[in-house]
Each structure stands twice: as structure tokens, then as C-alpha cells.
Amino acid sequence: MGVSVPATSVPPNSLGGDLGWTLGVLFRAYLKAADAVTAELPGGPRGRQILTCAVRDEPRSQSALAQLLGVDRTVMTYLLDDLVDAGLVERRPDPSDRRSRLIVATEHGRAVLDNLDHRLGQVEEHLLGGLDDDERDRLRTLLQHVATSINAADPVSDTCEVVQDIGVTSARKHPY
């Protein structure tokens, strides 16, 4: 996968106990590998998240999906267009609201997601290779709990705005 994990429990430097540094290193490594795994998928990692939701039938509508993933509705339209063109999802009329469209995975989309999930599982195994199965499960559970709590308290309506806000705030505080 291109990421080597040292076989040591000693932090490599004085930042080893810093949560920001730790999360940053893990995030960069995961994102780099996830980008490689999803390179052929329309929308890359974001396209995989959409496909995952479509396969699991939650949320079903395009607007609910955009809200859950923090994607601008117009951007979501383009992402879905690309996924539809690739034969991975379909838009179907919502029988309970004719103004709404349900996002449904195709059989091809389900097969593609199975393959992506297998490959991303290998990425996770590689990145978390220094942990045993129980530790991996606990880490996933803890991270999911923290992420769910944070998202409930401060949901993301548009990830593009979050990135812009972080960049503007950072540039104002640290212009170097």
C-alpha cells in the first residue's frame, strides 16, 4: 500500500503524544491509500461513501444523502450523475414523494462496493497492523463514538465550507 508501519510502540518523536499530530499522520496515510483504492471510482472516496449509503439504503433521498455527507446539493447532483453514468446507482421516483428521488445501488454498484470494501479492509489492516483484533475493534468503536458525538453536536452541512473555513482561519492566525 506504500505505507510502512514501524514495529515499535515508542513514538518516533516528541509529537507522539500530540492528538493532532497523531490524527494527522493516520488521516494522511489513510487518505493516500483510500485515494489509490478508489481512483477509478467517480468521486473517489466521496463516491464510495455515496455508494455505501446507496447499498445500505440509508439515507434514501438525494437531499438526505447530501446532508448526511456534508456535500453541497449541487455538488451531490454532479457526483450522482457520474455514479449513474458508471452504472453504479440509479435515481428512482420516491413513491411517497414524487418530487424526491431515491438513490438505489445497482447490482454492478454492489459488486464494485464489495471489491472496494475488501481493498479498503486491507488498507486498514496494514495501517492498524501493530494492533491485535480486539485493539482494532476498540479503536474503531471509540473513533466512531467520538465522531458520532461531534457530528451530532456540530453537523457538517458542506465539507467544502469546512475546508475553506479551516484554511482562512489558519491563514489569519499563521500567515507563514
What does the model show?
It is globular and about 55 Å long. The chain has seven helices and two strands; from the N terminus they run H-H-H-H-E-E-H-H-H. Helix 2 (44-55) crosses helix 5 (107-127). It has a two-stranded antiparallel sheet with strand order 1-2. The protein has helices at residues 19-37, 44-55, 62-69, 73-85, 107-127, 133-153, 159-173; strands at 89-94, 97-105.
CATH homology group of the largest domain: Winged helix-like DNA-binding domain superfamily/Winged helix DNA-binding domain
**Shape type:** globular
Total tally of structural domains? 2
Low-confidence runs (pLDDT<50, min 5 residues)?
A: none
CATH topology group of the largest domain? Arc Repressor Mutant, subunit A
Can you give keywords for this protein?
about 180 residues; DNA-binding MarR family transcriptional regulator; single chain; 2 domains; DNA-binding transcription factor activity; mainly alpha
In short:
62% of the residues lie in helices and 9% in strands.
Helices and strands in order:
Blueprint: H1 19-37, H2 44-55, H3 62-69, H4 73-85, E1 89-94, E2 97-105, H5 107-127, H6 133-153, H7 159-173
Antiparallel strand pairs: 1-2
Helix pairs in contact: 1-5, 2-5, 3-4
